[in-house]
Amino acid sequence: MNSPGRLHKNPYDPDRATKIRSTYRWQRIRSQVRRRNPLCADPFGDHEGIPVATQEIHHIKSLNQFPELAFDLENLQGLCIDCHQKIDHIRGRGIGA
Questions:
Q1: Residue 8 CB contacts under 8 Å (≥ 6 apart), including other chains
Q2: Helix, strand or coil for residue 69?
Q3: Which residue of 5, 14, 71, 73 is most buried, as measured by CB atoms within 10 A?
Q4: Which residues pair with 36 in a beta bridge?
């Protein structure tokens, strides 16, 4: 049986992100995060103090592993495309970010 916060029975549903990102709720949350954090969080310190706009919203705790946190503002941060890709690359190699 699913826990109440689970969006899907299978925690590794490859369509989960697509399904979530196509909802009106996600669009609202995404806009809220962008207003709250208009600049990239710069998790690697790559921007050297130069402000770079938030372009994507990142799930700090993986959407596949923690679908119940999909819309949790505390689990979301604004990133530029380069930082988001770097985190995804690190996670994809099992290093963790």
A1: 16, 19, 67
A2: helix
A3: 71
A4: none
Which positions of the chain have pLDDT values less than 70?
A: 1-14, 93-97
Alpha-carbon distance of 75 to 8, in angstroms, equals: 18
> What size, in residues, is the chain?
97
Kindly provide the residue ranges of all beta strands, DSSP E only, lying in 1-97, ordered along the sequence.
Answer: 56-59, 76-79
pTM score:
0.77
For residue 65, CA distances in Å to 6, 7, 53, 97 come to: 10, 11, 27, 14
**What is the Cα–Cα distance from 52 to 41, expressed in whole angstroms?**
9
